[in-house]
Write a structure and sequence with these properties.
heterodimer; A: alpha/beta; FAD/NAD(P)-binding domain; globular; B: mainly alpha; Cytochrome Bc1 Complex, Chain D, domain 2; 6 strands; disordered N terminus
Chain lengths: 592, 416
C-alpha cells in the first residue's frame, strides 16, 4: 500500500532540462508543481566545484554522475532472433541521474535541426520518390515544423546564453555562420567562442575545399551573460572538462546555471530527490492519469496525485514508464502495430584522427570546451544530393576539440604497440600535434521496423518489473552514410596538413560497449496519426490527455545534430500549448 | 484615528529623516490603525527582529528560541509574539519601550546586549511603538523560552548594571543640523534600528562599543564584520552610492557578494528597505572618516611568488588573472575590501571552508566558493591570501600560516 500525499496541480517525473523548463513555465502560470527525481540533488558549487570537477578518473572512467546499473539497467541485443542480456557497465550511452539530468554532463552543443528534418518523409519522398527509401525504414514527419519551433529555439538559446554566429538571420545568409540553418529571428545571445589553433586550421582547410565552415553553437559561453530569468553565468575558461563532468565555473548552460536558482525559490514549486517513480496511475477508464507512485530510499511507496502529469525523464525511462503504466499500445515489430517502443534510434558517430609533424604543429589540445569547434554542414540532412549516393541522411562534421584529458587523450598513429616504451614514446611525440575530433562526424540515425524498445521477457529490476529491452543495430543506409561522410571529413583533415590519418568508420553491429553519444531517441514518438505515434504534435499522449511526455523519446528519427536544442524547443512548445490551450479547456488538443 | 500632529517645520530640514508622524511627547497613536501597523512592519524589518527571534524553518515567526552566539556564551532569544503567558501580549506599551530602548525587563532585571538596546535606544518612541503595534498583530505562539543560558558568572543579570553604566548611553538619536536630511536619516538607521554597529563597531573585552572606532570592523561569530567607513582600502571608499545600495538590496555588486551572517541580514532586512532609506544609508556611510593607518609591512618576494602560482592554478578560473572577477557573479579580489581587511578572518574562512553567497529575488544566482581547506595547507593558504592582498595596486599585511592554522582549528568546532 502506498501512502497518499496531498494533491498537486502538476507532477513532473524527472528534474533535468525539460523537467526544469516545464516546472518553470507551469509555476509561472500559477500552478502548484512538484517534481520527482530519481537521483540526488546536485548543485554546481557543492557537487562539482572547479577545484575537483576536472577529475577524469572519477567522472569519465568511473561514471560518477551517472545512474548505477545496480539500480536500474536495460537488456541489449542487435537482432530480434537473439537473446538480450543486461548491460552491467554503461558503454555506448550514459543514462543521466540526479537533478539537472543530462544537462549536467553534456558538452553543450546547442544545434537546431534543419527545416527538412521535421518533414523528413514528405521531403525525401517528394525529392527522390518513395522507392528510394529502404523498405523497412519507418521515418515519419514530426507533426511540427521548424517555423513552429523557431520562437522556442530562440527562447532556449537566450535562456542558455548560447555562443555562436548566425548563418541565416530572417532569411538573410550571414557570412561566417552556417548557411544551411533555418532562418533565425535573432542573432545568438553571445558571440561564438574563440577557436583554438586546430579549429582555425580546420576552418581554413574547409574553406579552401569550397565549404562554408562555422563555429559550433556552444552552451559554454564566450562571455559573461545574464539570462532573462536574471540568472548570471560566467565566461568559459576552456578547461576542457565538459562532457561527463559538471561545470563549477557557471559557464556551461545547465538547469543548475540557468533555471534552478529561480525555480527552487518559488513557493509553488517543490521536489523530491532520491525518489524513483514506479508508474503513472490511471483512473478506472484508463483515459485519465491521476498521478504517480514513487518509492523513496527507505523503500516506502508514496502516491502523488495530480491533475496533470509531465513525463520528463530520459528517453529510455519515459518509454519504460509508459510500458509499465500500460499507457498506449506496445509496439509489435512483427505485426508492425502499436506505438510504445517504436522508432527507437541513436546516432551514427565516427572520427578521423590526424597526426601532424610535431616540429611544425602544436595544437595545445587541453585548450578546449565541450562545444567549441569549427564545423561544416554541407553533408548534413538533405543539404546534398543523395540521388547518386544510394543512401539518405547525413551529419555535420568538424574539428571539435573537447579536451586534452590525460587518460583518454593518448592517441597514437595506427601500427603503434598498445603498451610499453614505444607506446609511451609515441604518446609523447603526438600529444601536442594530433587532431582528435571528439565527434568528428556526427551523423543521423533513421528509424527502422526492427529497431525498437519493449519489455524483456526474462530480466527484472529490484521491484520485480521487467527491464526494458533494446533491440538495435546499424542498417546499411547508416553504414553507407557514415563511410561517405568519414571520407569527406578525412579529406579536410588531410588538407590541414596531417601526414597520417586514422579513419575510424562506424561499423555494424551496433556495439553497446563503445561510447557514441547519449542521444537515444524515440520509443514514444510524436506525430499526426495515433496508429503510428504515441503523442500528438503537442507531446500530449493520444491515449491519456492529461499526460505530456517531453524529451528525445518524441523524435520519430534522429537528425545529424545533437538533440538538446530541439528537445528544449519542443518542451517550450508543449508548455506554451498547455498554458495557452490545455488549461483553458483540458482535454485532447488534437482530435484523432 | 488619533494621530500626533507635530509639524516637521519645527525641526527644519534636519528633522525630515523622521519619517514618523510624532515624537515621544505626543499622545500615543492608535495601535490598530493600518498605517501604524504597516509602518511598524517596515521598521520591524529594518530592525531585523525576525532574525534573532525566529528559529529558521520552524514556521513560528517571532516565537524566539534561537540560540545567539556571544563572546560570553549562548543566549536564547525570547518569544515576542503577543502570547499572554510566554510572549509579550501582557506587556504594557511602556514595558515594551523600556525593554527595547533601555534593556530593562518588566520585572526590572536587565537584558543582555545581545539584544541591541544600545542601538535601539536611539530609535524614536514613536517608531518603537509602531513596532509594538505590528508585533501585536502577528500570530501568538505559546512557547516558553529559557532565555538565559549563559555560564556563570555571566548568568547573573545583576552584572549588567555596571555594564550599562560603562557602555550604555540612553537617549534618542539627535539629528545634526549641519548635515542633510538624508545624512541624518542614514545615521538614524545605521545607529538606531539598523543596529549596524552591533557587528561592525569594535568592542571592548566586555562587549561594549569602542565608540572612537565607530563601524571600523569587528571579529565575531567566526567572521570579520568589515570596516564600513569610507576608508579606501579597508572600507567602502571605492564603493559608489549605487554599489552600497545594490549590495544591501541584492547582496551583490560589481565588486563583492554577501555571505555569512550578512547574507541572512540582507534576506531578512536590507533587501526590503525602501530606496530612499538605502540612499540615506549610503550617504551616511560615505561620510564616515577613513582610518589613517600606517602602510602595512610588505610581503616577502618568495611568499608572493608562491602565492601567485597557487592563485593562477586555483583561483584565476573564476576571479581572473587580473583579480577582477566577473561583476555580480565572482567577486573582484582586486577591489574587495573583505580580501584586504586588516583582520583576514573572513578571507581565511572563505578559502578554508568555502561559502555560499546570498540569493535574493533580484539576484537569484547565489554563486558559491569551493572549499580549499582539504587541498591547501596553512602555508599555501597564507601565501595565496598574501598574494591576493598585495597583487593589484593594493597593500595589506601578509597573512601568516600561524593565523591560518588557528582559524582552521576554530572552524573545526563551528557548525555554521
Amino acid at each position: 500500500m502506498s501512502r497518499k500525499l496531498p494533491k498537486k496541480d502538476v507532477v513532473i517525473v524527472g528534474l533535468g532540462w525539460t523537467g526544469s523548463i516545464m516546472a518553470n513555465e507551469l509555476t509561472d502560470e500559477g500552478l502548484d508543481v512538484i517534481a520527482i527525481e530519481r537521483g540526488p540533488w546536485r548543485d554546481a558549487p557543492t557537487e562539482f566545484p572547479p577545484n575537483y570537477a576536472q577529475d577524469e578518473l572519477r567522472y569519465r572512467i568511473r561514471h560518477e554522475l551517472f545512474l548505477r546499473p545496480e539500480q536500474l539497467t536495460f537488456t541489449f541485443r542487435n537482432k530480434m532472433n537473439q537473446t538480450a542480456l543486461p548491460i552491467r557497465d554503461w558503454g555506448s550511452f550514459m543514462p543521466p541521474n540526479g537533478v539537472g539530468g543530462g544537462g549536467v554532463h553534456w558538452n553543450a552543443e546547442t544545434f537546431r535541426f534543419l527545416p527538412t528534418d521535421f518533414v523528413l518523409r514528405t521531403h525525401l519522398t517528394e525529392r527522390y520518390g518513395a522507392a528510394f527509401l529502404p523498405e523497412d525504414m519507418t521515418i515519419q514527419d514530426f507533426g511540427v515544423t521548424y517555423d513552429d519551433l523557431e520562437p522556442h529555439y530562440d527562447t532556449f538559446e537566450y535562456l542558455c546564453g548560447t555562443s555562436g554566429t548566425a548563418g541565416n538571420l530572417r532569411g538573410q545568409i550571414q557570412e561566417g555562420g552556417n548557411p544551411f540553418e533555418g532562418p533565425r529571428s535573432r542573432p545568438y545571445p553571445t558571440p561564438a567562442q574563440k577557436q583554438p589553433f586546430s579549429h582555425t586550421l580546420f576552418g581554413k582547410a574547409a574553406r579552401e575545399l569550397g565549404y562554408k565552415p562555422f563555429p559550433q553553437p556552444s552552451g559554454n559561453l564566450s562571455q559573461a551573460y545574464t539570462n532573462p530569468l536574471g540568472i548570471r553565468m560566467g565566461p568559459c575558461t576552456y578547461c576542457g572538462f565538459c562532457e561527463w563532468f559538471g561545470c563549477g565555473n557557471y559557464s556551461k548552460a545547465s538547469p543548475q546555471t540557468t533555471i534552478l536558482p529561480l525555480l527552487i525559490r518559488k513557493s509553488n514549486f517543490s521536489f523530491r530527490d532520491n525518489s524513483e517513480v514506479l508508474h503513472i496511475n490511471l483512473d478506472g477508464s484508463g483515459k485519465r492519469a491521476t498521478g504517480v507512485t514513487f518509492v523513496d530510499t527507505g523503500g516506502v511507496e508514496w502516491e502523488q496525485p495530480a491533475d496533470l502529469v509531465i513525463l520528463s525523464a530520459y528517453t529510455m525511462f519515459n518509454v519504460q514508464l509508459l510500458l509499465h503504466s500500460k499507457i498506449g499500445t506496445p509496439y509489435d515489430p512483427v505485426a508492425n502495430k502499436g506505438v510504445i517502443g517504436r522508432n527507437f534510434t541513436h546516432q551514427t558517430i565516427s572520427t578521423v584522427n590526424g597526426f601532424f609533424d610535431n616540429k611544425k604543429f602544436n595544437f595545445n589540445p587541453f585548450i578546449a570546451s565541450g562545444a567549441i569547434g569549427m564545423c561544416i554542414d554541407e553533408f548534413n540532412g538533405d543539404n546534398f544530393d543523395h540521388g547518386p549516393l544510394g543512401f539518405v541522411g547525413g551529419g555535420y562534421m568538424g574539428q571539435v576539440q573537447t579536451g586534452g584529458r590525460p587518460i583518454q587523450s593518448t592517441g597514437v598513429p595506427p601500427g603503434t604497440p598498445k603498451w610499453g616504451a614505444q607506446w609511451k614514446s609515441a604518446v609523447r611525440d603526438n600529444y601536442l600535434s594530433q587532431v582528435r575530433p571528439g565527434t568528428g562526424v556526427h551523423g543521423s540515425f533513421y528509424s527502422y521496423r526492427d529497431v525498437y524498445l519493449d519489455l524483456d521477457p526474462t530480466y527484472k529490476d529490484r521491484f520485480g518489473r521487467p527491464l526494458m529491452r533494446m533491440t538495435i543495430d546499424f542498417h546499411d543506409n547508416e553504414i553507407k552514410q557514415n563511410a561517405f561522410l568519414t571520407d569527406k571529413f578525412a579529406e579536410i583533415i588531410r588538407a590541414m596538413g596531417a601526414h597520417t590519418l586514422d579513419k575510424q568508420y562506424r561499423k555494424a553491429p551496433y556495439d553497446a560497449t563503445e561510447y557514441q553519444t547519449t542521444h537515444l531517441n524515440g520509443g514514444a514518438i510524436m506525430g499526426t496519426d495515433p496508429a503510428t505515434s504515441a503523442l500528438n504534435r503537442y507531446l500530449q499522449s493520444w491515449d491519456v490527455s492529461n499526460l505530456f511526455v517531453t524529451g528525445a523519446s518524441a523524435f520519430p528519427q534522429n537528425a545529424g545534430y545533437n538533440p538538446t536544442g530541439t528537445v528544449a524547443a519542443l518542451a517550450f512548445w508543449a508548455a506554451t500549448a498547455i498554458r495557452g490551450q490545455y488549461l483553458k479547456n483540458p482535454g485532447p488538443l488534437v482530435h484523432a | 484615528m488619533r494621530k500626533a500632529a507635530i509639524p516637521f517645520v519645527v525641526f527644519g530640514a534636519a528633522a525630515a529623516w523622521l519619517a514618523g508622524p510624532g515624537l515621544g511627547t505626543a499622545a500615543d497613536p492608535d495601535g490598530q490603525a493600518f498605517d501604524r501597523i504597516a509602518k511598524g512592519r517596515y521598521l520591524t524589518t529594518v530592525a531585523d527582529c525576525y532574525a534573532c527571534h525566529t528559529v529558521l524553518d520552524a514556521g513560528k515567526p517571532f516565537a524566539g528560541g534561537r540560540p545567539i552566539e556571544t563572546p560570553f556564551g549562548i543566549i536564547t532569544s525570547s518569544n515576542i509574539t503577543p502570547d499572554n503567558e510566554t510572549g509579550i501580549g501582557a506587556w504594557s506599551d511602556q514595558q515594551f519601550v523600556d525593554a527595547v530602548r533601555r534593556g530593562v525587563r518588566p520585572n526590572g532585571s536587565r537584558l543582555y546586549p545581545a539584544m541591541p538596546f544600545p542601538a535601539y535606544t536611539k530609535m524614536t518612541h514613536d517608531d518603537v511603538l509602531a513596532i509594538r503595534a505590528y508585533l501585536a498583530t502577528v500570530e501568538p505562539v505559546h512557547q516558553a523560552v529559557k532565555a538565559n543560558t549563559l555560564p556563570f558568572p555571566f548568568d547573573i543579570r545583576e552584572a549588567m548594571r555596571p555594564w550599562d553604566a560603562l557602555y550604555f548611553t540612553e537617549g534618542e538619536f539627535q539629528p545634526d543640523s549641519s548635515q542633510s536630511a538624508d545624512w541624518n536619516r542614514g545615521a538614524y538607521l545605521v545607529q538606531g534600528p539598523g543596529h549596524c554597529t552591533a557587528c561592525h563597531t569594535p568592542k571592548t573585552s566586555l562587549g561594549g562599543d569602542k565608540s572612537g572606532d565607530n563601524l571600523r570592523g569587528f571579529n565575531l561569530q567566526g567572521w570579520f564584520a568589515p570596516d564600513i567607513t569610507a576608508d579606501t582600502s579597508q572600507g567602502l571608499g571605492q564603493w559608489s552610492e549605487d554599489d552600497i545600495k545594490g549590495y544591501l538590496r541584492t547582496g551583490h555588486n560589481r565588486m563583492t557578494a554577501a555571505t555569512g551572517p550578512m547574507a541572512e541580514e540582507i534576506v531578512n532586512s536590507t533587501s526590503q528597505y525602501n530606496d530612499s532609506d538605502l540612499h540615506a544609508i549610503a550617504t551616511y556611510l560615505k561620510s564616515l572618516p577613513a582610518r589613517q593607518d600606517k602602510a602595512p609591512a610588505q610581503a616577502g618576494q618568495p611568499v608572493m611568488a608562491a602565492g601567485q602560482a597557487i592563485y593562477r592554478d586555483q583561483c584565476s578560473a573564476c576571479h581572473g588573472l587580473d583579480g577582477q572577477g566577473v561583476a555580480m557573479l565572482f567577486p573582484s579580489l582586486a577591489q574587495s575590501s573583505l580580501a584586504h581587511a586588516s583582520d583576514p578572518t573572513s578571507a581565511i574562512r572563505l578559502v578554508l571552508r568555502g561559502g555560499r553567497s546570498v540569493a535574493t529575488k533580484a539576484e537569484p544566482t547565489a554563486p558559491g566558493m569551493p572549499s580549499f581547506g582539504w587541498q591547501l595547507n596553512d602555508e599555501q593558504v597564507a601565501a595565496v591570501l598574501t598574494y591576493i592582498r598585495n597583487a593589484w595596486k593594493t597593500a595589506a599585511a601578509p597573512v601568516s600560516a600561524d593565523a591560518v592554522g588557528k582559524a582552521r582549528d576554530q572552524l573545526r568546532t563551528r557548525s555554521d
